[in-house]
Design goal:
It is a single chain. By secondary structure, the chain is mainly alpha-helical. The chain has one domain (about 5-120). Helix content is about 70%, strand content about 5%. The protein has a two-stranded antiparallel ribbon with strand order 1-2. Strand 1 and strand 2 (about 100-105) form a beta hairpin. Helix 5 packs antiparallel against helix 6.
């Protein structure tokens, strides 16, 4: 088994397990077309933001992937609309946010994330 086959197997396992940050990292280091790498990065960002509601992790991924505040906000809002359109609202429901001490919908969380963008970069 060669190294590329091993990477492809690892990539497949990461995607199946929904470990999108890992999948994006593996894809970047293998012969995966740029469009697929971008799709995995977008899934990783969505997962970090909407599913995990990890503010710092979301900001770090934006830096690693080269997303500006506007690009990240637009992408996450578009994905939220797509989720609503498919009737998959689980990730959009209110979740406890330790920074505010409140339960925030994804839209509210995203608004807070965008407001705190510059502070997050400094930390």
């Amino acid at each position: 088994m060669n190294e590329e086959t091993t990477l492809q197997d690892e990539l497949k396992k990461a995607i199946e397990a929904k470990h999108f940050v890992r999948a994006a990292a593996i894809a970047e280091s293998s012969a995966v077309p740029p469009a697929e790498v971008k799709e995995l990065r977008n899934k990783a960002l969505w997962q970090m933001a909407a599913v995990f509601r990890n503010t710092e992790g979301t900001r770090v991924l934006c830096e690693q992937y080269g997303y500006s505040k506007k690009e990240a906000e637009d992408l996450l809002r578009r994905w939220a609309e797509e989720q609503k359109g498919r009737g998959d609202k689980k990730a959009l429901e209110p979740t406890y946010d330790h920074a505010t001490g409140k339960y925030l919908s994804f839209e509210e969380w995203l608004n807070q994330f965008v407001k705190r963008w510059d502070k997050l970069a400094a930390s």
